[in-house]
Amino acid sequence: MIMFMRIDRLLCEMNIGTRSQVKELIRKGMVLVDGQAVKKPDAQVDETSVRITCQGKDYTYSPYVYFMMNKPPGVITATEDAKEKTVLDLMREQLTEGNEPGGLGGVPIRDIFPVGRLDKDTVGLLLLTNDGALAHKLLSPKKHVPKQYFVTAREPLTEEMAKALEEGVFIGKEEKTRPARILWREGCQCRIAITEGKYHQIKRMFHGVGTEVVYLKRLSMGSLYLDEGLKEGQIRELTKEEVMNLCSGI
Ligand code: URA
Predict the structure, then answer these.
(1) Among the options 46, 119, 121, 227, which is catalytic?
(2) What are the chain's domains?
(3) Model pLDDT for residues 175-201, shown as the tens digit of each residue
(4) Which residues are near ligand 1 (CB < 6 Å)?
(5) Alpha carbon of 62 to ligand 1 centroid (Å)
(6) What whole-number distance in Å separates Cα of residue 235 and Cα of residue 88?
(7) Each residue's pLDDT tens digit, 1-24
């Protein structure tokens, strides 16, 4: 499919600069489209196949972008909110804060949303993308995509608690969770894998076995693992391999 767009608008969407900055770059002949200088800001280009070189740097426009965030506590998983800071606010800060234009891959941020929800106090892996089809698959209750969490509970986790979590827990009158897997357990801490995404699921499961969650961190979603090099609040673009594995694993 061919989709035409003005070159100045496309460069803005790729976060290369503001409209006036990119117009100036274009007029100065510093923008090459498929190797040829384009000097008119209103020149139409095919956004689905164009190869852009700007000030000697190559950019390819992909309609889809994928980021992982190490979500910090105190931030809500939403695109906007009148009162609370959202994960998209955090992302916007990182896209503009001291980064060279387009430094995070040239992202049109307006279409990006978080895939699934982490509670305000939950930290860890959050996928942000504009790929609705992938998000739909990852969140589909039919797909049973595994998610791993690191949990600190209020009480030490006994053998019985671990068994109950692995068998499935009633978290509502008639709502029983699918079996979880305890991957590691020591004292009050464990690593657990679940294949659903019910509302407050981990907290309700631990409540169901007689304790409370005091710290919760998501470590993985499908094949995607949190990059432990990312500090809380930081984001990075997924590698091509991570995207391929994520898309092909479901
Ligand atoms: N389960 C929860 O209880 N909270 C989260 O944020 C994620 C999973």
Answers:
(1) 119
(2) 4-60 (3.10.290.10), 66-115+123-140+229-248 (3.30.70.580), 147-221 (3.30.70.1560)
(3) 999 999 999 999 999 999 999 999 999
(4) 118-119, 122, 200-203, 216
(5) 32
(6) 11
(7) 566 788 998 888 777 888 999 999
